[in-house]
Amino acid sequence: MAPRRGSGGGGGGGDGEGGSIGSASCPGAFKSEYATTISYFVAYCLFFLVALGTLIAMIKIKKKHPHSEKLLGWLFGVSLSFFLLGYALVIIATVVTECEITNMLNNGGLAVEIFFSLAEFLLLCLVLYGVNTELRKLVGSKPSFLNIICGVVLGIMFVLTAAYISFFSYNTISLVSSDQLISSQQKLAAAYYVLFLLSVFLGSVGIIISIVQIRSKEVNSAGLVGWIIVLIVSMNIWVLFILVIVAASMNGQYWGSPFMDSGVKEAFAYIIDGGQALSFIAILFIAKSYAFAQIPFGGDPQQQMYNNLTYPQPQQPVYNQVPVPQQQQYPQQQEYTSNNANYNNGNGTQGYYNNGPSMNG
To answer: Domain 2-293, what fold?
Structure first.
């Protein structure tokens, strides 16, 4: 779970929200002083089901709304799958540990942390790059400058994500639990989430600017603005709450402070996991919006916007209705009558020449 960041280190860093039990059996699961709190286990199961339901909904939406592929591509699918795998692993680890089969919470904590770290980073990529890029296309601009900014920011975040995973892996595998290593891991986690929050804020500003421009251009944005607001609020909240936990752990107050009692920590866990789940759900509804159906894959958004405008179809000129001057019409009619008369008399076209003056006078 994400709240573990910065709250532990070394071999035990994989389980900062609760402990494992060493002597209880399944009938006594979750009753030991060091057992995982039942409310956390309920959260694991609840948000596993939410992630699974979101994944199923993604598949259905992509079939029904082909234009949703712009946001529900591999980035969305991989990020959501990593969250799903993380929840599945922590559920399995909790069950086998509480049933005293093996202490999998410590051993499996590394895999869980890796899955959640990668899932959070990919979710950031989806919001900062994916959503912003599609909204800029909807406005009618080519987001080349935006792509450069997003690329630089996401490059920095990727390096920090890799550094945190490496640091956490070293502390877990080496079974080292010195105060210095724990402190270094907490500082790295704090720096990571400060920049993570700034990146989310940057993406939120870009999204708001795009929405204002979309509404000013009277682009069809039905069902889009509301879910954009949900996405912005949920993303900022869950990152901010993780940062609060990391800051409290750096001051040694996460476990001992009255403010951070068990009820508050459990509430934080639900808010963080709920915010992440709501972010995915918001992107689902944003992707299916018919506003994005106006932009084809790889098409020129500005040209497509003009094509969508309705103009009156020009009437084709009817040349046959142009009046013919009488002085031209009469000789033609007379000539036709003469030819027709000769033809009817059996002379055919030869009669036309016979109507001319006689060479013999």
So the answer is: Rhopdopsin 7-helix transmembrane proteins (1.20.1070)
Domain locations along the chain: 2-293
pTM of the model as a whole: 0.72
- Assess contact for 278 and 126: CB atoms under 8 A: no
pLDDT per position as a tens digit, 283-334: 999 988 887 776 544 444 444 444 444 444 445 444 444 454 444 444 444 4
CB atoms within 10 A of CB 328: 9
Query: What would the pLDDT profile of 100-141 be if each residue is shown by its tens digit?
Result: 666 666 667 788 989 999 999 999 999 999 998 888 888 777
Two tokens at 247? Answer: 């800051």
